[in-house]
Amino acid sequence: MNDLQLDIDIEGEIKLLKKDLNAVILAHYYQESEIQDLADFVGDSLELARKARSTDADVIVFAGVHFMAETAKILNPDKLVLLPDLDAGCSLADSCPAPLFKAFRERHPDHVAITYINCTAEVKALSDIICTSSNAEKIINQIPEDKPVLFSPDRNLGKYLMKKTGRKMLLWDGSCIVHETFSERKIIDLKVQYPDAKIIAHPECEDALLSHAEFVGSTSKLLSFILSDNSSRYIVATEPGIIHQMEKIAPQKAFIAAPPDKNCNCNECPFMRLNTMEKLYLCMRDRKPEIILSEDIIKRALRPIERMLEMS
Ligand code: 13P
Ligand code: SF4
Description:
Structural class: alpha/beta
Number of helices: 15
Bound molecules: 1,3-dihydroxyacetonephosphate, iron/sulfur cluster
Strand content: 15-25%
Helix content: 40-55%
Oligomer: single chain
CATH topology of the largest domain: Rossmann fold
Number of strands: 12
Number of domains: 3
């Protein structure tokens, strides 16, 4: 499917299908530029969940990864939710299989389970509160001091939040393959070459890398930072798809994608990049692949997502 070439005006066809289906296209900042430009709304995980909850479209076309489309389905069980490629997963979600997570919870029955939105619907259904990197700190700060917390599945975000909140938490040992790929040494070399550049990073990066960052935040927070900050150059340690938005909102500034350790494109999320314009068109034309979840999972996963939305 990746090499699929369609001899049609894909953009034009997608726009027609959008009208026919009364569909909304929601895209994450890590999608390829063309998809971001075509989408009705581009955002981070929290903004996309909010948008999915408030839309009055009949069909949600989700240009992002599986757990994001699942969240949209949980919030809209009666709507058709399409994902251009069902294999667009997430290494964090993969690192936390529901049966192991259930056993983890059972070993710590007195703990509140705060779970990063990058997890499967089954894991959400087993959690108390969902969070994203935009609202995690705020949510943790609302948990009574004497209540122990389990934070899953990203150990890097968990460690970062422990530092920020001063709160000890029990962490699940998962990580993002993309954010762990950045080379600390190459980033320092870049900083030597461009001393005026600020290093900005997503909290899914490892501790050592975060210690060099002048600003740490979710994708939306990185965007608002570069807009309000007075530097003219940044080294961006997150998936480089976001640079498209940075260049759009701050065309006078320069953005350097933090390089990966090896000579590869592994700073690009291989899951996010499975979605292409062709697959976006095909999923709308064929009204599939769609996200299907059982009623039971939807009911149980909705509660911790709603708690997140109330607390953030
Ligand atoms: P944001 O919520 O910051 O957009 O992060 C999503 C994600 O998958 C980061 O890798
Ligand atoms: Fe998951 Fe990492 Fe891709 Fe984000 S960048 S979707 S955390 S694999």
